[in-house]
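Retry 2 of 3 after timeout on previous attempt. Resubmitting structure tokens to design endpoint.
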């Protein structure tokens, strides 16, 4: 029984961890030294050896086994006793060395697992490594480049920390002013999340694989932000299913800015299919390399209208106001003026770059048309190859911008026949939809679908779904690449004219697809990642982006330059901007089209003093209410 009790006690001591083991060895060392000190003091009483001397001699033998070599002339009993002490010392210190080595190894393993607490302030946290992670990281590095010291924390549970670090360092050898800290853990587990320091973070991006994982993560992060009292931080997340958006907003309790993936991407794809080069405009607006939206206070703007202000700003464009009560007015009424406490929404190269001149720049009245040439809605035919969860939204969006009699042919691949009922059941006013099943990768099939006597508008869709891994995304993109190459062959060998807009899943495959000379690429994960990254830095941008992408309110249009100004002669951007402003539109750039090759050049936020010769085939990129 006593043996069992000792074993039980010893097991408990051993399970106490490194500190408990060191404590046990220390006690054993002290007991050994004290006992031998007493024995030496008693045995050597006639030789002048006291208790203190005995303790010192024992301690030196415990600490250094080599000390026993000097005991040759002190007598056999003493040597034997010191031998016992030395053996005990060897046992104690070898055990201690092993414990310390194990403790160091455990710490190294813990660091590799990424479980240490992050000690940062004002950092951005990305939770999850779903598609678009590297785009987010790249954009944040660029956005932070004009700040001295910024930190980015990434947490995921798919790899060890050293693997994550290696991937990040391989992809981003130059991180500029941003330090990237990787941590491993379950992104919806509150205990795991605590290492990311939510009490001091600036914002959180949730980049989970599915809506269910995103909702769970929102709940966990919201709880932590409330627990720490960090009411300045907020969450940015993307929901794929529109029906889950309200649930995500409820889970966020006011801490979350939620984007609907299908809603946003369907509008972008629909708009891009109507206007060649528009995907480049969206990319320019949403990414941090070039001009983007900033919200800044300019006291000298008080009392001026939007049109007046754009004649004061030489290198940026004012597109709206943020009222002192938080209301966002994008492309407001022409007579609306800036009030005290308002901030300006600026389309600029960088934050802090916008400046107001002392006086407004003059415009060339003789270049501006007296009457605006408004284009009527036109009938439009389109061939849509493949199915995507966004197709329903694309067709409904397109229905708002075309005249009655427009025709859309949807070519479904094998295995997609079940979507026929959904597509044919749409309540469209202006579009007649024809659904057919075929092999859209077949050249002969494509040739039969295209019309040789007219310009064809073709939209190629990627069938994405929740939880799709990189391997599956590569297979989907491979199908799209084959279709694009077949279309290019038909264009070159049969002389069939076509304008092609293609959706792709991975940005890495866009370079491969450029050989197909497609007019526009829309890479869903890339664009949503760009939008999310911008919102995580300025919360008000979500409302701005949503208005630009919805049917009501102001949207981005590409309209003929000849609608506004006299073509074939030089004019400056101040004058072009004023011509657009008189139609309650904001000029944010222009599209130049080469007459010979048909190549398109998109220029956004050009310097206002720049002089440009606009031809009939050129166009203005404007924010307008239609």
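Retry 2 succeeded. Sequence:
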């Amino acid at each position: 029984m006593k043996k069992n009790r000792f074993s039980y006690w010893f097991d408990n001591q051993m399970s106490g961890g490194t500190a408990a083991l060191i404590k046990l060895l220390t006690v054993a060392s002290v007991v050994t030294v004290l006992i031998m000190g007493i024995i030496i003091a008693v045995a050597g009483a006639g030789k002048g050896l006291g208790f203190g001397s005995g303790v010192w001699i024992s301690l030196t033998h415990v600490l250094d086994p080599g000390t026993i070599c000097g005991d040759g002339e002190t007598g056999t009993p003493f040597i034997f006793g010191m031998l016992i002490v030395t053996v005990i010392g060897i046992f104690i210190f070898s055990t201690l060395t092993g414990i310390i080595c194990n403790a160091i190894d455990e710490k190294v393993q813990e660091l590799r697992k990424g479980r240490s607490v992050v000690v940062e302030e004002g950092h951005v946290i990305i939770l999850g490594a779903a598609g678009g992670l590297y785009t987010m990281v790249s954009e944040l590095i660029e956005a932070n480049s004009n700040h001295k010291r910024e930190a980015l924390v990434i947490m995921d549970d798919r790899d060890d920390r050293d693997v994550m670090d290696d991937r990040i360092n391989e992809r981003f050898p130059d991180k500029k002013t941003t330090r990237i800290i990787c941590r491993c853990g379950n992104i919806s587990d509150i205990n795991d999340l605590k290492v990311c320091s939510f009490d001091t973070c600036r914002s959180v991006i949730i980049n989970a694989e599915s809506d269910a994982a995103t909702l769970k993560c929102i709940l966990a992060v919201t709880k932590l932000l409330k627990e720490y009292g960090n009411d300045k931080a907020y969450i940015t997340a993307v929901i794929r299913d529109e029906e889950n958006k309200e649930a995500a907003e409820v889970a966020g309790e006011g801490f979350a800015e939620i984007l609907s993936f299908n809603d946003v991407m369907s509008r972008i794809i629909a708009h891009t299919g109507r206007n060649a080069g528009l995907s480049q405009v969206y990319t320019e607006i949403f990414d941090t390399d070039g001009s983007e939206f900033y919200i800044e206070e300019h006291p000298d703007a008080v009392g001026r209208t939007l049109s007046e202000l754009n004649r004061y700003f030489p290198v940026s464009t004012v597109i709206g106001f943020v009222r002192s009560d938080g209301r966002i007015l994008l492309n407001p009424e022409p007579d609306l003026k800036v009030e005290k406490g308002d901030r300006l929404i600026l389309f600029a190269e960088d934050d802090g770059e916008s400046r107001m001149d002392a006086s407004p720049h003059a415009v060339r009245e003789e270049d501006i048309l007296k009457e605006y040439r408004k284009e009527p809605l036109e009938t439009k035919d389109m061939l849509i190859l493949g199915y995507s969860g966004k197709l329903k939204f694309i067709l409904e969006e397109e229905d708002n911008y075309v005249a009655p009699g427009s025709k859309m042919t949807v070519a479904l691949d094998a295995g997609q026949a079940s979507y026929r009922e959904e597509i044919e059941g749409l309540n469209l006013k202006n579009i007649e939809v024809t659904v057919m099943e075929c092999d859209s990768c077949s050249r002969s099939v494509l040739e039969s679908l295209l019309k040789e006597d007219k310009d064809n508008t073709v939209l190629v869709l990627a069938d994405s779904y929740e939880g799709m891994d990189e391997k599956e995304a590569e297979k989907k993109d491979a199908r799209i690449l084959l279709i694009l190459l077949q279309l290019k062959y038909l264009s070159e060998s049969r002389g069939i004219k076509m304008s092609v807009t293609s959706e792709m899943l991975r940005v890495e495959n866009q370079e491969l697809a450029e050989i197909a000379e497609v007019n526009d690429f829309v890479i869903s994960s890339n664009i949503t990642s760009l939008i999310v990254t911008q919102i995580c830095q300025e919360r008000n941008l979500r409302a701005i982006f949503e208005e630009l992408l919805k049917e009501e309110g102001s949207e981005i249009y590409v309209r003929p330059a000849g609608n506004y100004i006299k073509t074939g002669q030089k004019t400056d951007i101040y004058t072009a901007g004023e011509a657009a402003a008189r139609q309650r539109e904001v000029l944010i750039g222009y599209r130049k089209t080469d007459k010979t090759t048909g190549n398109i050049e998109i220029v956004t936020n050009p310097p206002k003093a720049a002089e440009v010769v606009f031809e009939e085939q050129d166009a203005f990129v404007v924010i307008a209410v239609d």
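Attempt log closed. The first strand starts at residue 124 and ends at 127.
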